[in-house]
Amino acid sequence: MNMMNSFAVLIIWSKIILAVGLPKVQQPNSIPISSTASEIAVVKDFLAKIAPQAKKLGAETLERLFLGYPETKNYFAHFNTSHGSDDLLKQGGKIFNALGYAASHLDNPDGILSALKKLHPYNLRDPDKFHMMSSTINHVMTSNFEEEFPARIQASWDNFMDEVYNVLLTKYR
């Protein structure tokens, strides 16, 4: 995979982090993406299956994030963080829709560049929180999709999420 795919992964986490309102940092250096075409296809297929549940899954992710990592709740002081709140559903949907967007644009350099021009992908801070979010998303996937998330799909998903995390970490080097 090429550098353009690194930008696609950066876009996804930029959207996720922007959706949760974290502050600004410097432009990153990119790193190469190692996912194979087969792994990307698996991730795209899985995201297409779960897309109708994006808001619910995203809200659950945020709820679990707040329970497992209470310090992350500070970024959402203006939210109603109670179970099933409109705030959590809206933000959660943004997170999962952003994952879908990135996965669907990994093979489209023109689309990636266009999206980069429209985004402000440097509004990020605190790389420890990226790992917390990624870990929580993985937990939500495994707990909600035990049958639909066998080892083969989980391995592709984990690789995709690790790459997203690693691309974001390059911002802090």
Describe the overall structure.
This protein has 173 residues and is mainly alpha-helical. It has one domain (3-172): Globins (Globin-like), CATH 1.10.490. The chain is 65% helix and 0% strand. Helix 1 (3-19) packs across helix 7 (151-169) and helix 3 (54-68) crosses helix 4 (86-104). One of its GO terms (biological process) is hydrogen peroxide catabolic process.
Determine Rg (CA atoms, Å).
15 Å
N-to-C order of helices and strands: HHHHHHH
CATH class, please?
A: Mainly Alpha
The CATH architecture comes to: Orthogonal Bundle
Average pLDDT level: 74
Oligomer: single chain
Helix fraction by DSSP (H/I, runs of at least 4): 55-70%
Secondary structure layout:
Blueprint: H1 3-19, H2 37-50, H3 54-68, H4 86-104, H5 109-118, H6 127-144, H7 151-169
Offer a quick outline of the entry.
One of its GO terms (biological process) is hydrogen peroxide catabolic process. With 173 residues, the protein is mainly alpha-helical.
Give short descriptive properties of this protein.
Globin-like; 173 residues; mainly alpha
